[in-house]
Amino acid sequence: MTLSERDPRLRRVFGPVPSRRLGISLGLDVIPYKTCSLDCLYCECGRTTDLSCERRRFFPPQELIDELGAVLPAIPRLDHMTFSGSGEPTLNSDLGGMIAAIKRIAAAPLAVLTNGTLLGRADVRRDLLAADVVLPSLDAATAPGFARINQPAAGIDVEGVIAGLEAFRGEYAGKIWMEVFILKGVNDGEAELAALETALRRARPDKVQLNTLDRPPAYPGVESADFALLERIRSGWRGLAVEIIKRARHREEIPAFSSNLENSLLNTIRRRPLTLDDLAALTAKGEEELRHYLEVLEQERKVKPVIEGGKIFYRTYEE
Ligand code: SF4
Asked: Looking at domain 13-246, does it have CATH number 1.20.272.10?
């Protein structure tokens, strides 16, 4: 199956798409556009039009289960089914019931992307217990920083969010991968980064994923952080399992860039489509390093990821 755009006949299920964080991922969108408890400066879905922290029923949950049941037989392999989309999934008060129902009909691991703002509530934490991976975000740990980058709904304070993350870690046995989104000149100051580090140590995630702007943001004028800063943060947060998931846009961002390696990757992929594993075995390079080269080649429309037989292959546009 090739990378599919959202099927217009489906309202809640989209993909599967190759995801950097989650592999081959089938998206489950359970929130109307654009309902969220935050209005992040960098949001790639646009500005929040319904800023709320009220949990609600948005549609009969069986609609999602029926759609999923209809598409799953045509998908050979999934790395994750992922609650994501264009709003905050924990605002859907049927989330726990939907997770339980999906677990009965599908074997792939279930992931939930969340902004973490409702984790202070026992019912939200309970709803998430059956998920296999929860991916909360935390971009600031001081009140002014949180207000600036995340523009929360009334009633949400950052200390409550951090306490919720801490409580969730104490109750949840699954994996927690926290995303920290860094913007240049917004949350990259020393005091903010120190507060974030302290908060992350309290939240005890299995890993921390550093990210920055990759697509047009909801608010103009915000700028992405460069690799050097993300690398400095990663090396400074000792004892935390930190990875950088920012996509490389330019060759200059790749440390010790080698045009020989880039040409060899392109020529190899021209001969036949290959997975990241194949390329790592052929070049004896690490996957993280190869991913940066492939991202630049993707930007330039020289290679593209496609899903075939349940794996992500890279192939050229020329075929
Ligand atoms: S929490 Fe996510 S969906 Fe909500 S505004 Fe922020 S980035 Fe967008």
From this structure: no
